Structure formats: C-alpha cells, structure tokens
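From: lab user (bench 3)
To: helpdesk
Subject: output format question, protein + adenosine-5'-diphosphate

Hello, I'm new to running complex predictions and I'm not sure whether the block I got back is the full result or only part of it. Here's what I submitted:
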Amino acid sequence: MDIVKVSNVVKKYSKVTVLNNINLEVKEGEIIGLIGPSGSGKTTLVKSIMGMEKIDSGMVEVLGEKIPNLKVLNNIGYMAQSDALYEELTGKENLEFFAKLFRLSKSEIRERIEYTAKLVNLEENLSKRVGNYSGGMKRRLSLAACLIQDPKLLILDEPTVGIDPKLRFSIWKELKALKQQGKTIIVTTHVIDEAEKCDKLALIRDGQIIATGSVAELKEKFKVNTVEEIFM
Ligand code: ADP
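Helpdesk reply: Thanks, we reran it on our side. This is the complete output you should expect:
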C-alpha cells in the first residue's frame, strides 16, 4: 500500500518554481531518503506532503486521504530542521505537552513517554531542563516528541544535523527499529553516507526528482561508485 502518493506537485514562491512536477510514492514500512543539495526543495516537499505548504497544482495523498487533512496529521510525526522544544521545561514536561496535544489518556502518556525516552536513550535526563541539554540531546528529544502519539508515518527533516557520528549511528539504529515495527519513514539529508541506509532514494535537484531507486539501482543506472558522484 502507498502510504504517501505525490502526483504532479508544483509549488511556487511568488514567481519562483521550487517544486517542479514532483511524483513520488512511498510504500508502507519503507525508509525513503530525499537527497539533494541545500535549497533543492527537500523541506518544501516534506511540508507539502503534510499540507503545511499549500501547493499550486498536483495532489498529495497520505494514508489514502487527500492532503490537507487534519485527521491524517495525527498520524504523521514531524521533526522539523530546528528543534521546537520548550527550553524552560524539562524533557519529560516537553513530552507531556506534546502528548496532551494529541489528547492521549494519562496512562497512554505515561507509557509513551517511557517508551520514546527509552528509544532515544534519554531516560536518565528526563527531569533536566531542556535548556541544559546538549544539541544532540535536543535532537533526540525532538525525535521522541514526534513519536509520542505513535504515528504511522514519520517525516524527519535533517534529523542528524549537528550530531556526531556515534549519535548519528544510534539514531539510525532507532530508525531501523521503527521500520521493523512497520513505520514508514521519510528522511531528508544531504549526508551521502546516510543515503546508504535508506531502502529507496529520491534524488532532488532544482525542485525536480532526477532519479529514484535503491542505492544499488542508482549506482548502476548512473554508472558511478558513490551516490555523491551523481550530483557532480
Ligand atoms: P532544502 O530543504 O532542499 O534546503 P528548501 O525546500 O528549504 O530546500 O528550499 C527550496 C527553495 O525554496 C530555496 O531556493 C529557498 O530559498 C526557497 N524557499 C523556501 N522557503 C521559502 C519561502 N517561505 N519563501 C520564498 N522562498 C522560499
């Protein structure tokens, strides 16, 4: 089943075309990487998928529903490029806040906080104020926050920016574990080595998808040894 289906999407900012006839299908349980240089349109594409940006033409369907759709939003966990956390609150209070937005019951809140904090390895730090967290801890708390309501689809915009290689590895381990549970994950990155970890890639340049496929398929197609070379 297609969890996401993007058909002929065009998005302009004033007269500039930022997404130029995008077509994309994401299947259940897939990790898809949107790879492309800075400014190529990755963030605009993920925002259009959620309905946060109004598209000029084309159509987006998520979980079988036409976007924008508020109900579907409950089933999307979105992690933006910059952390949207309350620095004055503790990690736990932040997670409680987001859980309440989704109207989870008291026992669900407790369970989901326990589960997500464990997943991102922040159990020991939940009672600390987020203002005192390191950049990596904030990134991990953001990941926990976007998982709080147990969404079917995760959209992660540059989840490992500013994160050291060790932590990056552990975040990818978490993403793989989530995939095993059947989550579908869309991740944007310009880190080529992360591309290798995705089931499928969509290469984006100047608002267009120039190719899609697995890493092996793309290397074969473009007759290159690394994904990086495709962009050169
Ligand atoms: P990426 O995520 O790949 O770095 P973006 O989707 O953020 O790319 O941006 C794609 C293009 O759209 C860039 O040229 C950017 O300057 C432009 N852009 C993004 N948001 C806006 C906006 N709100 N208004 C005008 N132009 C924008």
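A quick orientation on your result: The pocket of adenosine-5'-diphosphate is lined by residues 13, 18, 36, 38-44 (CB under 6 Å). Let us know if anything else is unclear.
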